[in-house]
Amino acid sequence: RPAESSELAAFQQALERAELALERAELAQAAGGIGIHDYVIAANSIIWDRRVYDLWGVPEGTSVSYETFASAIHPDDLPTVEAAVAAALDPQGDGTYFATYRVRNQATGAVRTVEARGRARFREGTAVRLVGTVRDITSDENLRRELRQAVQFAQ
């Protein structure tokens, strides 16, 4: 049974490599303040990690629909976000999703600016999922605004 033993050892090594890769990805995600979203289109269900639940101010574990997602987006930003989602889900496009928008935290009312990136997954020419990341860029946006004001003041 040496063949079975070597197959088992190879499987265990592959499993250890996968666990290490997952651990590294989780550390990078946490360090970057990045949240993960996974929109399952046919079910109108979005799977969020803890970071996204926190940004939206929705209790962790709550069922999330597209409507839950959209209801927290600033009304001025919603048309742009919906256009970005539609473009990503268009089978004639490349499936890329990118949007920067404001989110109103449902629990605190705080408004944060986020950057979302993702990629649609297609099956037989139909979008079935949109998987990606969300990053809070509020402090970056505030710094940019302060720099613009400083430049204007200096002129």
Compact overview of the structure:
With 155 residues, the protein is of the alpha+beta class. Helices cover 46% and strands 28% of the residues. It is built from five helices and five strands; from the N terminus they run H-E-E-H-H-H-E-E-E-H.
Notable traits:
alpha+beta; 46% helix; 5 strands; 5-stranded antiparallel sheet; single chain
Q: What does this protein look like?
A:
It is a single chain. This protein has 155 residues and is α+β, with helices and mostly antiparallel strands. The protein has 5 helices and 5 strands. The chain has helices at 2-31, 50-56, 66-71, 78-89, 138-154; strands at 34-40, 45-48, 96-104, 111-123, 126-136. The chain has a 5-stranded antiparallel sheet, with helices on both faces. The longest helix is centred in the first third of the chain and has 30 residues, at 2-31. The protein is extended and about 80 Å long. The mean pLDDT is 87.
State the assembly state of the protein chains. Answer: single chain
Number of helices: 5
The pLDDT mean sits at 87
Percentage of residues in helical conformation: 40-55%
Q: How much strand?
A: 25-35%
| Largest beta-sheet characterization | 5 strands, antiparallel
Question: Structural class of the secondary elements?
Answer: alpha+beta
Order of helices and strands: HEEHHHEEEH
Low-pLDDT runs? none
Strand order of the largest sheet: 2-1-5-4-3
Radius of gyration (CA) equals 20 Å
Distance between the termini: 80 Å
Find the count of extended strands (DSSP E, 2+ residues): 5
Which geometry do the CA atoms define? extended
